[in-house]
Amino acid sequence: MKVIEKSNIKKILILRLSSLGDVLLTTPLIRILSKTYPNAKIDYIVAEPYSEILTNNPYISNLLIYDKSKSIFKPLKNPELLCNDYDILIDLQKNIRTKFISLNRAKIKTKYSKQRFHKLSLVYRKNPLVENFSVPLNYIKSIGLNELEDDALGLEFWLKKDRQANDYLPFSKKYTKESNPLITIAPGARHNTKRWTDQGFIELIKILKKKYDCEINLVGSKSEIEVCSFIQSQIDFTLNDYCGKLSIEESAELIDTSDLVISNDSGIMHIAAARKVPVVVIYGSTVPEFGFLPFRTHYEIVQKDLSCRPCTHIGRESCPKKHFDCMNLITPNDVLNKIDELFKRISKNQLL
């Protein structure tokens, strides 16, 4: 790879179009690039549905909005920002759309590794090729910029109030209360095999209310309105059902006020990690070894050790074995035990 002096790096372009979690997992790289090349302006191209994640990020000079509904030849809403070549171009998506944008635009083009063999080995051999694999660390380490060093900090989701206050530390620890906590639950996920059962969530919510006398929020996208409505219909007390009613930033604001988030392996858990809110994650057809753990926040994992897991690295519409044991065998008590463990560990740390 061609080498350019740090002081001569003036303009950097990052491409990551989607999705919610993947974009959030690039935020440590954005921060580290800004610190490593302080003279550089950083532009970022992202698909419109996920632009809210980066709108208030102080390290980004220009946020370029990609419209997937338009022609691949004219997809940008602000193409004039791409009139100059870049010193460094970092393509973290590596699909036909980003490869087209990348043509002849940079002095240095990085070679990001998707670690496909690691994913394939997990799915077909149930054996990880990379120990303790982490997607955000892979973004930092695999692009071939040797000057970059992990700063041991976490994800970032800057809210408008953070920019206005100018004192937000996205990696700072929050106090979490165990008495009468505010718990946010995200029962959905893009793929069915990454969703714990509706009945599991219903029974868990009843137990949580009785044990903790907590206030409970439901969050999710518009496609998850039906499941959230069904959960509420099976419970004889009122939940705060925000499903389908909030933008991504509004969802982050809600999570920010929470003491605990309970989520499937979905983008919501990464928002919780970015806001340093403790999270309990339920894994079904996927496994943490794919690198999508809550990054550098308090968390606990709920999963069943089965010979058929993982059957996919992104999720499926249905269980290929027809039994769906990866989720059906997880009980409300399994989740509750992890919640108790998490609260105890956090309480101990906060008293130190």
List the defining traits of the structure above:
14% strand; 352 residues; 5-stranded parallel sheet; Rossmann fold; 2 domains
Summarize the structure.
Helix content is 31%, strand content 14%. The protein has helices at 20-24, 27-36, 96-101, 116-125, 135-141, 160-165, 198-212, 225-233, 248-256, 267-274, 325-328, 332-351, and strands at 11-15, 41-47, 62-66, 86-91, 106-109, 182-186, 215-218, 240-241, 260-264, 279-282, 299-302. Strands 8-7-6-9-10-11 form a six-stranded parallel β-sheet, sandwiched between helices.
Q: What is the fold's blueprint, element by element?
A:
Layout: E1 11-15, H1 20-24, H2 27-36, E2 41-47, E3 62-66, E4 86-91, H3 96-101, E5 106-109, H4 116-125, H5 135-141, H6 160-165, E6 182-186, H7 198-212, E7 215-218, H8 225-233, E8 240-241, H9 248-256, E9 260-264, H10 267-274, E10 279-282, E11 299-302, H11 325-328, H12 332-351
Parallel strand pairs: 1-2, 1-4, 2-3, 4-5, 6-7, 6-9, 7-8, 9-10, 10-11
Helix pairs in contact: 2-5, 7-8, 7-12
